[in-house]
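Hey, sorry to bother you again with one of my protein questions. I've been puzzling over a protein and I'd love to understand its fold better. Take your time with it, there's no hurry, and the full record follows here:
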Amino acid sequence: EVQLVESGGGLVQAGGSLRLSCAASGFTFDDYAIGWFRQAPGKEREGVSCISVSDGSTYYADSVKGRFTISSDNAKNTVYLQMNSLKPEDTAVYYCTTPGSWGQGTQVTVSS
C-alpha cells in the first residue's frame, strides 16, 4: 500500500522558514516523481514543486521560485520542501503526491 505522510507544517511569521517532509512507503521510491501541491481556503489546489527522484530534476511554480527548494533523501525515502522567505499568501494545506496517491496534508500558516 502506497503511503505518503507529511510533517513539518506550522505557524510562522512572514519572512520565516519551514521545512516540510514527505515520508514515502509502499512503492519503489526511485522510480517516481514526487510533488508538493497546496490548497488555500476557497482556492483550487495548485502545484508548488516536483522532483524526479531518479535524476534529481526539479520543477517550481513561479510563485515560489527562489524561495522554496525541493530535495530527496533516497536512503530515507523522504522528500523535503525547504520554504524560506515565507509570505502570508503561502498559507495553505500542503500535500505530498505521487501518481495515484496523496498524503493527508500539513497546514502552513504565515502571519503578517
Q: What stands out?
A: The chain has a mean pLDDT of 95. The radius of gyration is 13 Å.
